[in-house]
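Researcher: Go.
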Amino acid sequence: MSKKQSIFGRISQLVKANINDAIDNAEDPAKMLAQIERDYKNSIVDAENAIAETIGNLRLMEEDYAGDQKAAEEWGVKAKNASQKADQLRASGSTDEADKFDNLAKVALGKQIAVEKEMSDEAPIIKSQQEVVDKLKTGLGQMKDKLSELQAKRSSLAARSKTAEAQQKVNDAIGSIDVMDPLSEVSRFEDKVRREEAKVRGHQELAMSSLDSQFEALNDVSDDADVEARLAALKAG
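Model: Structure:
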């Protein structure tokens, strides 16, 4: 597993765990989204720290490589100077002294070769670590882009959640109301009025019946008077 995979793998697992926990325990969507944003920001900080450490290690390796490169050049200069000194001594007939400086040149060349070998081993490692750092920086940039998207969506999602919650309350309120036809109540009142009107007509009818009876009684009295008058006329003659 590469350094990049290791860093972002751990952070990814942590972010998912925190988000899942926030969702599972959410009562207020706004608070949940705020918690997710805080957790993601903390993850970005963790990623930045891990990447900074990786970059720091890379820079140390580059410094060591630059130091080895300088040492190789210095050993090369020393070997060259010792060789030139040996040639001068040999030309003047000091063979033993010349051999001594040639041996010093060999030692310097051996040191140079050893340092160059270390540099040869370090070069691909440095290159590989530089590639990792580049990928980590790209990954960090993507995390920050995701954070910007989260922040942009947070207010929208919170508003939508509040709207849905309000709509559900309205639906619950409507569901709790006994739905009835108001016209049925009007019709019931109309029937009551008609019954009252019929009652009035009934009283009127009763009143009229009483009046008719009185007039009929008067007619009976008139008929009796006629009978009495005719009877008196017969008796008179």
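Model: Residues 95-175 form the longest helix (81 residues).
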